[in-house]
Design a protein that fits this description.
Largest sheet: 7 strands, mixed
Radius of gyration: 20 Å
Order of helices and strands: EHEEEHEHEEHEHEEEHEHEEHH
CATH topology of the largest domain: Rossmann fold
Shape: globular
Strand order of the largest sheet: 10-9-8-11-12-13-14
Number of strands: 14
Number of helices: 9
Strand content: 25-35%
């Protein structure tokens, strides 16, 4: 028999405090009180400032830069809550870092996504809530329930409202084809695929071919994340070379590391639409970048988990 909790608490680590506040506003509860800071020796310390005994607690923390600090903050917060007798602890991880290290694709390399899954479970989390994992099989790395949400419907609604002429969804690589095909079906438009291969472990890739046509169309590049922006900018240039009238980029996670902003600024991309699963500072919000909030998506899901309602039902309604 399912157990229900009277009190709900939402806490946030330091990775994305603004998103935590927006989620709490959606659910209409104040953010939980917690001090999360680092001592001068580099050790992270957590102190929860209110009783959470038998509460339904949600801890919001993206694995964004500084990634190691973000991970350790979450693990220590979960351990703190477990020792404070929280009734149920849900790790809300809008961006699951290390998602690209999900398999042994070369000799003597780790599967770090599996390691993180084990660490989250061992720390005391009872379930995980995340958005657009890089690879779906990561759900199976956990021994606790995982709810994977998607921002695809929100991104699709935004681009639909723009009424772009002759849209074509373009997957920037073969591995992302299924995700791009789903968006193309939502937008009722054709699909094109860029075939490429990665030439090193340093985010370098080489474009090989464009499968499909973007001539005299609006190309809509769609991926789960934009990191250094090398692949997405290279894909945009290919689309322009193949006759696209304009190019947009949609992605859930704006990692935007290294030279990403400089590359995006000079790229042929007309607009880059991201979400706030990762906090994007003001200095990175160039005019081309639009940031959509996933607070409503996460907040609605938290409310459903708390009351025992169906999580998938909200996506079925969005797909109708």
């Amino acid at each position: 028999m399912a157990r229900y909790y009277d009190q709900m608490t939402i806490l946030g680590g330091n990775s994305n405090l603004e998103l935590t506040r927006e989620i709490c506003a959606y659910v209409d509860i104040p953010p939980g009180r917690a001090d999360v800071f680092k001592f001068s020796n580099g050790n992270i310390f957590v102190r929860v400032g209110e009783s959470v005994r038998e509460n339904d607690v949600f801890v919001v923390q993206s694995f964004s830069n500084p990634v190691s600090d973000s991970i350790m903050e979450l693990l220590i917060m979960i351990d703190t809550l477990k020792r404070a007798s929280a009734g149920r602890i849900t790790a809300v991880i809008p961006y699951f870092g290390y998602g690209r290290t999900d398999k042994k694709d070369q000799p003597r390399v780790p599967i770090t996504a599996r390691l993180l899954a084990d660490m989250i479970g061992v720390s005391g989390a009872d379930r995980v809530l995340t958005i657009d994992l890089h690879a779906g099989q990561i759900q199976g790395f956990f021994n606790i329930p995982v709810d994977e949400l998607t921002a695809m419907y929100q991104l699709a609604d935004y681009i639909s409202e723009r009424n772009v002429p002759n849209p074509v969804v373009v997957s920037p690589d073969l591995g992302n084809t299924k995700r791009a095909r789903n968006l193309a079906e939502l937008l009722d438009c054709p699909l094109a695929i860029i075939e490429k291969r990665r030439v090193s472990n340093q985010d370098e890739s080489e474009v090989l071919n464009l499968i499909g046509s973007v001539s005299d169309c609006t190309a809509i590049l769609f991926d789960d994340e934009i990191d250094t922006a090398g692949s997405i900018c290279q894909a945009a240039e290919v689309c322009v070379d193949r006759g696209a009238n304009s190019v947009y980029a949609l992605a859930t996670h704006g990692v935007l590391s290294g030279p990403a902003i400089e590359r995006l600024a000079v790229s042929p991309l007309k607009e880059i639409i991201l979400t706030n699963t990762i906090a994007i500072p003001a200095e990175k919000r160039i005019p081309k970048i639009t940031v959509l909030s996933v607070a409503g998506l996460i907040g609605e899901t938290i409310a459903r988990i708390h009351t025992g309602a169906s999580v998938s039902h909200q996506f079925r309604r969005a797909a109708l």
